[in-house]
Structures are given as structure tokens and as C-alpha cells.
């Protein structure tokens, strides 16, 4: 296998495109493959917030205890696509085991602590290197609480953030309304993260990265991967619908669909479609310029260049199921209750499949029993946040540098 062959990155979402850029800067010839235009799948519709404050895995005891109540409440941040339930049961059982285990939770905490520190540096570097400054805003972010009980529920994560040196300010409802004019009177608390950063157009971020990648010699190929050719413990070529491409190495970064590729290579990636929705509104009486997240409701309200984006909540589903558009309607109702005077004409609505593993840790690093296959998938709610960090980590490992010990719990081979 010639060293002149390219590294093939499969998946042109934010994780795959950022990884292609990192490998390119390390001196590799790189081909980026996707069946769709870069950034047009799940990366298109996220909330736009770079959530480096996120330090707790969602698989933890406090979340597990709330699941039954949330499933009963149609307006809760979590629901299940009922026709998908038989398909979801094995994943849900694995989630319950991970969430109930203090050892597994500790692995998640250690992993996210390292990943978020890496992401903070990696995004600042990428924004400068790829000329993305016009697409990002450093206005901070505001989480708001509608009861003292819900504010108390966040104490565990705030304690971790304090220990890791995350800068934040606890404020009362009056101060929250000053920072985000129009907030409802019943907001009792807020937590402001002054170092928070968001993008005004997630799709354009991916498109700009892909354009810079191509301008600097990278190849972007629209095709679907069908299989792999093997030579011992190495993948020697990637088979697509139109041709067979020799490969020096392969990176799997196809989000929820990554499990279909890992099966072809002999290891498991039990990913579900953790579906999220967004609604874009034309601005009407919007007097704030930072992302606001009503914590109990599980979504973000983000000012973007095309309008106001309402994005979030979770619907667990099997792949390729029809949308449940009532979840998008729910976002609009939430907005009216949290910002009574804010509104606007609906411009568009969207659904995306967040790729989620049952322990809510991403899979980052070399694939099991394969010397030249690397993984970057399973980032659930923080794909935008961890994209550049994932790319840098994979590039380092490909150069012979071992991953930090804190990231061993993100081993792609942990599911067998």
C-alpha cells in the first residue's frame, strides 16, 4: 500500500470536515467522501452553541431517575418515537446500565473534561486558520431557570465546572431579564457563561471548511461507501458506488450511519438517532444577541443571520422514521412561554439525527484490530463543540502519538 494514497475521511458533516482539515494541515493527502453536500445533514440544523461548559455525560443517575416522568409528559425534553420502541430497547438497557454505574459516569466526566479543554483551543485555532471569524460571535451564553428546584438540579455540573476553572456567573431573574430583554417574569435564576461562543450559521461553517479544504488541495467526493478491501489488519481501499479508492488510512465520521460501516469492519457502534428539531423564525421583537437556554425545557434560542433558531429536545427513534412535527411545534410554544413578547413568522423547520451511543461518550481513536482505521462519531449534542478537537486528536494518533489516558473511555472498541 503506497504512502502516496490519500487518507479517506468518510462523512462531510462538521466532525468529518474538521478532521479532514486537521489531517491536511498535518501534511496528508486527504479525500473527503459523503453522499450529500458537506454540512447538509445533521450539522445543518444544530443550535450553533460551542458548549465547552458541558462536562457531565447525559448517562448519569439523576437523568435516569427523571426518564419515566419525562416520557409521560408530552412537553418534556425527552420523548420516544413509539413505533421505534422494539428497536430501541437494547440501546435503552445499555443506557440504563451506564447511567446507574458510578464508574461509567466518572469515565464520562474525565473524558469530557479533557475534550472540552481541547475543544476550546482547537476552535480558536481553526477559526483563525480557516478564516471563519465572520461566522462566530463571542457574546457568552445564558441558561435560565423557572424554579429554584431546577436551578438546584444543576449544582453538580456547576461544581465540576468550578473545579475545572470554567468561568460563569450565577444571577437572579432581574439580571437575566436585563441580559436577555423580553424574558418572562417567572424566570427566577440564570447562569451566564461569558466565554460562550456561537455560530450565526452552522451550515456555512461546514461549507467554509470544505471550501478551504478543497482550495488547499483536498478532494471532496460525492459518493456512497459500499464496502472496504482488506490487507491483513489494514484497510487497503474504500469501495464506493462508482469506484474503488486506494487508501493510506480511513476515518469513519458519518454520524448515526457510522454503525453501518463499523459492521462491515467487524466491530459494533450501537448508535441511535437522537432526533432533534429546529424552527427558524423571522426576527420579531428580539432584543438579545446571545444564545439562551431554558434549562428545564432542553432547547436553545439562538440569534442567527437568517433569524431566530429554536433548536433542541430529544426524540429517540430508529433510523429513517418519519418526523414527528409536533416536536417542532413544541419549540414554538416553549418560546412563547419563556419570551412572551418575542415571535415572528416561521421560515422553516428541520429534523436531524444526532448520533448517540448508550453511554453518551463519543467514539474517538483507532478502531479495534485495525491498524489504519480511525473513528470520530457518537458526539450526540456536542458534535459542533467537539468537531475540531476530534480532528486534532485523530491527526495526532495517526502521527503515532497515543491518546491521553482520560480518553480511553472513548475507545471505539468498547462495545465489542
Features:
416 residues; 11 helices; six-stranded mixed sheet; five-stranded mixed sheet; alpha/beta
What's a concise summary of this model?
The protein has 416 residues and is of the alpha/beta class. Helix content is 34%, strand content 26%.
Question: How would you describe this protein?
Answer:
- The protein is α/β, with parallel strands linked by helices and 416 residues long.
- The chain is 34% helix and 26% strand.
- It is built from eleven helices and 21 strands.
- The strands form five sheets. A six-stranded mixed β-sheet has the order 10-2-1-14-21-20, with helices on both faces.
- α1 (14-25) packs parallel to α8 (202-215), α1 (14-25) packs parallel to α11 (383-398) and α4 crosses α11 (383-398).
- The longest helix has 28 residues, at 102-129.
- The radius of gyration is 21 Å and the shape is globular.
- The mean pLDDT is 95.
Cα gyration radius (Å): 21 Å
Tally of alpha and pi helices: 11
Q: How many beta-strand elements?
A: 21
Unreliably modeled segments: none
Strands of the widest sheet, in order across it, are 10-2-1-14-21-20
The assigned structural class equals: alpha/beta
Question: Tell me about the biggest sheet?
Answer: 6 strands, mixed
Shape estimate: globular
Distance N to C terminus: 28 Å
Summarize the amount of helix as a percent range.
25-40%
Overall pLDDT confidence: 95
Strand percent estimate: 25-35%
Amino acid at each position: 500500500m503506497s504512502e502516496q494514497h490519500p487518507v479517506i475521511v468518510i462523512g462531510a458533516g462538521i466532525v468529518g470536515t474538521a478532521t479532514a482539515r486537521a489531517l491536511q494541515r498535518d501534511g496528508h493527502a486527504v479525500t473527503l467522501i459523503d453522499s450529500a453536500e458537506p454540512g447538509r445533514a445533521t450539522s445543518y440544523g444544530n443550535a450553533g452553541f460551542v458548549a465547552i461548559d458541558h462536562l457531565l455525560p447525559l448517562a448519569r443517575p439523576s437523568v435516569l431517575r427523571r426518564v419515566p416522568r419525562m416520557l409521560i409528559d408530552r412537553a418534556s425534553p425527552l420523548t420516544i418515537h413509539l413505533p421505534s420502541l422494539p428497536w430501541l430497547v437494547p440501546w435503552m438497557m445499555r443506557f440504563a446500565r451506564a447511567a446507574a454505574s458510578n464508574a461509567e459516569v466518572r469515565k464520562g466526566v474525565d473524558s469530557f473534561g479533557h475534550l472540552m479543554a481541547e475543544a476550546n483551543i482547537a476552535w480558536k485555532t481553526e477559526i483563525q486558520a480557516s478564516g471563519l471569524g465572520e461566522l462566530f460571535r463571542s457574546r457568552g451564553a445564558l441558561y435560565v431557570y423557572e424554579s429554584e428546584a431546577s436551578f438546584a438540579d444543576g449544582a453538580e455540573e456547576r461544581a465540576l465546572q468550578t473545579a475545572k476553572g470554567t468561568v460563569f456567573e450565577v444571577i437572579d431573574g432581574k439580571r437575566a431579564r436585563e441580559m436577555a430583554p423580553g424574558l418572562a417574569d417567572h424566570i427566577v435564576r440564570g447562569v451566564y457563561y461569558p466565554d460562550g461562543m456561537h455560530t450565526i450559521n452552522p451550515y456555512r461553517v461546514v461549507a467554509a471548511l470544505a471550501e478551504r479544504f478543497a482550495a488547499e488541495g483536498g478532494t471532496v467526493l460525492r459518493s456512497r461507501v459500499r464496502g472496504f478491501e482488506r490487507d491483513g489488519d489494514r484497510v487497503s481501499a474504500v469501495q464506493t458506488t462508482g469506484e474503488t479508492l486506494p487508501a493510506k488510512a480511513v476515518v469513519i465520521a458519518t454520524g448515526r450511519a457510522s454503525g453501518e460501516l463499523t459492521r462491515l469492519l467487524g466491530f459494533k457502534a450501537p448508535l441511535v438517532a437522537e432526533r432533534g428539531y429546529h424552527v427558524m423564525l423571522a426576527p420579531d421583537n428580539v432584543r438579545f444577541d446571545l444564545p439562551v437556554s431554558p434549562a428545564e425545557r432542553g432547547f436553545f434560542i439562538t440569534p442567527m443571520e437568517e433569524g431566530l433558531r429554536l433548536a433542541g429536545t430529544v426524540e429517540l427513534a430508529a433510523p429513517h422514521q418519519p418526523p414527528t412535527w409536533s416536536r417542532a411545534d413544541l419549540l414554538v410554544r416553549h418560546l412563547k412561554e419563556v419570551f412572551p413578547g418575542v415571535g415572528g413568522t416561521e421560515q422553516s423547520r428541520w429534523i436531524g439525527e444526532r448520533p448517540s451511543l448508550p453511554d453518551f461518550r463519543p467514539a474517538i481513536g483507532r478502531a479495534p484490530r485495525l491498524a489504519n482505521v480511525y473513528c470520530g462519531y457518537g458526539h450526540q449534542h456536542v458534535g459542533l463543540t467537539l468537531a475540531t478537537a476530534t480532528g486534532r486528536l485523530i491527526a495526532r494518533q495517526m502521527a503515532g502519538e497515543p491518546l491521553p489516558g482520560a480518553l480511553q473511555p472513548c475507545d471505539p472498541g468498547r462495545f465489542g
